[in-house]
Amino acid sequence: MDGDAWNDMSSEYDNCVENNPHHVISNFIEEEITIIANLCKKIIKPDKKYTIIDMGSGTGRVLFSLKKRLDDSVSFYGIDASEPMIQLSKQKQSKLNLKNISFLHHDVTDPKIDEFFDDSTKIPMCVYNTIGVIPHQKRQQFFDNMLRLAGQDGFTLISAFNGDDFAFAAPQIYNPMKSMVKRIDEDSFDEQKLAFRNSLGYYSQWFTKNQIKDLLKSTADPIPIQVPINNKAQILGHVFVDRVL
Predict the structure, then answer these.
(1) Which CATH superfamily is domain 3-165+208-241 in?
(2) Cβ(52)–Cβ(74) under 8 Å?
(3) Contact 72, 96 (CB under 8 A)
(4) So where are the chain's domains?
(5) Looking at residue 156, what DSSP letter applies?
(6) CA–CA dist 141, 168 (Å, integer)
(7) CA distance 5 to 138
(8) Per-residue model confidence as pLDDT tens digits over 145-194
(9) Backbone phi, then psi, for 160, in 5-degree steps?
């Protein structure tokens, strides 16, 4: 999906993700951000300058949450291909009165994306299965961009929907977000291709743990995102990094 497709979803994005009252979504994003913040704290040192770059930042949810949890010296960048998403991010930032956060309307697969950033240590990340909507032909360039930005001193972080049982996990995640994806068809959950799709053109790819580790060129074990469902902890996704921290 391109930026124009996400423009149509921007008004519903916050309702379906950040402000979604459904326990599966609210527990998922809370567990996800806790894992991400703890990983960042492992590498961030008080005597160095760091920039966290959210690639496909939506309406700013992740950056606003991390800003409250991390050292004030960290800078934050949100990049998204959807202009309405970026505008909503800036409106929310103004209301929250949060400094040191910049939002940029740009293609995250642009190989010249480095030009927007200074020489600080960078932590590029892509969360909530945003990698699943990046076109296949641009996916490798996207990962190359992230790994290049991280360099030797930073690290690359990915969070993804990839529970061990797609047939169980996918409906748990997408059904509560129906108002954003607009339609869930009888064949929307494609177990063979590990993908969610609908007749309106929304498509989101899932990946196995090994596929993401290969894309990140990583040997680090992913951290499971566990959500309580019917009083049992269920793994609905994982957080990956490109190196052992």
Answers:
(1) Vaccinia Virus protein VP39 (3.40.50.150)
(2) yes
(3) no
(4) 3-165+208-241
(5) -
(6) 31
(7) 16
(8) 999 999 999 999 999 999 889 999 999 999 999 999 999 999 999 999 99
(9) -145, 150
